[in-house]
Amino acid sequence: MKSIMPLLFFFLFALWSSEAPAQTSPETTSRDVATDLRRVSLNGQWKFAVDYQNWGDQAEWFSPKLNDSVWDTVKVPHTWSHDPRFIGFIGAGWYRLKFTTPAFAPGEHVRLNFGAVYRRARVWLNGELLGSHEFGYTPFEFNVTGRLKPGESNVIVVCADNRWTRSFSPAPQHQVMAWWDDGGIIRDVDLLVGSPVYVAKQKVEATPDLATGTATVRVQAWVRNTTTLARRVRVRSEIAREENWLSLPPTVVETEIAAGTTARVEFTFALGRDQVSLWQLDAPVLYHARTSVAGHARDTVRFGLRRFETRGTELLLNGQPIRLAGANRHASYPGGGQDEPADLVVRDLQLMKEAGFVFQRFTHYPMTPVALDWADRHGMLFIAEASQTHTPDRNLDDPELQAAFRAQHREMIERDWNHPSIIAWSVANEIAADTPPGARWVKNMRDFTRELDPTRLVVFASNTVAKENLKPESEGSVHGDFVCLNTYGATPQQNAANIDRAHALYPNKPLVVTEYGLRRNAVEDEIERVDWFREMLAIIRSRPFLSGASIWSFNDYRSRYVGTSANGWREWGLIDPEGKPSGTYHALRREHSGFVVRSATLAAGALTVRIEPRMDFPIFPTADSELRVNFLDGQNRPLDIAKVPLRTDVPLKISAPAGAGGFRLEIWRAGFRTAMWTSVNLGRLSAGPVSARPAP
Length: 696
Description:
Blueprint: H1 4-18, E1 24-26, E2 35-36, E3 38-41, E4 44-50, E5 72-76, E6 92-100, E7 109-114, E8 117-118, E9 120-125, E10 128-134, E11 140-143, E12 153-161, E13 184-185, E14 189-194, E15 197-209, E16 214-225, E17 230-241, E18 244-245, E19 252-257, E20 262-271, E21 287-293, E22 297-303, E23 308-311, E24 314-317, E25 320-321, E26 324-327, H2 342-354, E27 359-361, H3 369-378, E28 381-385, H4 393-396, H5 399-416, E29 422-429, H6 436-452, E30 457-462, E31 483-486, H7 492-505, E32 511-516, H8 526-541, E33 546-551, E34 557-558, E35 569-570, H9 583-591, E36 595-603, E37 606-613, E38 625-632, E39 638-645, E40 652-655, E41 662-669, E42 672-679, E43 692-694
Parallel strand pairs: 1-17, 2-22, 26-33, 27-28, 28-29, 29-30, 30-31, 31-32, 32-33
Antiparallel strand pairs: 3-14, 4-5, 4-6, 6-12, 7-11, 7-14, 8-13, 9-10, 9-12, 15-16, 16-20, 17-18, 17-19, 17-21, 21-22, 23-24, 24-25, 34-35, 36-37, 37-40, 38-39, 38-41, 41-42, 42-43
Helix pairs in contact: 2-3, 5-6, 7-8, 8-9
């Protein structure tokens, strides 16, 4: 017993001194071990009730003593807006979760993190209000260290409210949003467990030198000290290309962080030619920046080495001019919306990539991280936009509205600023940009955006830039780095006139059509719709000053907006609500492949193919591609597959197997089948040459 007492006294003294507020605790140089954050998922079965009578606060639905056994059960992530029991409800929905806290090591820091709650959230833990959050698409968290009851039942309560407010509401002339207000806990809920001194966020600014083949990488890390002691810490950063850590000079910074504060540290790396691999659309090499706080925590983010810039009327990716197609996509599917599962997002992005839809402003709110991660890995370009749309001029100077937008815009940028797939930030969609308040909004928000992230271009999507008799200085596009036009002419010729007027107003700026399209239920059949899009493509191809054109929209989406079909869906999509591609999708997939088959003849035991790259639209950066030939017999049955590197400078001659009477050509780029053609005549070789036509 006597031998234990000194140890017990030492332990109690150490525990007391760790809470002493007035001294610095230096980190020893031997403690370089840093640990990754642990995530404890709280997704799954939660109790839920909608608050039809606004009774929840008065009835203390946040109390851990509430009997919620009669409440409904839902699976989080969840939105009530598409749940048949509560479909379309606007108001407050309450979520409750009872769970037993897992074991935590002594001294560990615990945060309760929400990926997103639409649109306003209040959160309680064991009856205590933790706080609230506005804006329904970005993450937020609360420090719950010491508030959880280890090994006992804990109760988390979330009140989500999707009602409009003065700082976020549809334009008065529309009364409703163009997309559904998907109320609920729409993304993951986790406990984040780790050191009380940790890396709160990182920002990587990667600048390749295209002339020398080298690159400079600047890493900024914000290190947070949540303890009651000042901490002197050693912070280290390192860089990896894919999974291989680069051999670079040591980068260690020692800094003191006051109790309860955050310190920013900065590192700069010089990468040699042999360490540089550019992030390209069809070869998207990714790097990792790992920042460690010695003895505490480490954090890893992904980034890419790429340069996206303007030159006259051109947009350049890594020094190469691009003219690319895209399609906007809403988070909407049968039975859900913003709570869309990851496999559904990936399915749509794969269809988009295969069809050449690789450059788009995705939609009017921050995208799910699943989409951004996939685009980083497989190669897509996005203009990211926070939710500010259709705002009339009389509201744009409202300080409350401006403050709310700045807050949500900042949250989006800080969440997404390391994604190489994001090449520009948009500060608005279809506001009254041809008025003084509208032009001021674009300028002010552009300046604000550049303060947060000077490495990317800043734009907004305009439906006023094509108006007649405008002066360049009077329309908001004068303040954007390139012009974004939304055009909905009744005919392709009217869209052509809009495009020409926008270009005439700003002849020295790149121009991107960020929205154009034709509703599926506005035509008699798919043939008419395909003809309309081909006419639009002819207009786009004949205007070399256009750098991109994005179709509204890739998918049908649920809406209450004026003009919505009686089935509740806006049928603009190239795929239907179940994800089935239309005939228009398949036609555009061939048009957007970037290649033209000039000839393909099967004769004398060989297939001779001449394929050329498109020189009008779309124009992809140069990348290695593969031609696959599926040889077929006279009954259209597969015989053999030949794979050869695609060459566009000379005809390709490929040996055919005995009995081949037809073929199917496929072009594969970066692992995606981007185009397919089949032969017309499926007869025997002896019947004569067989030529190719597009596959149906």
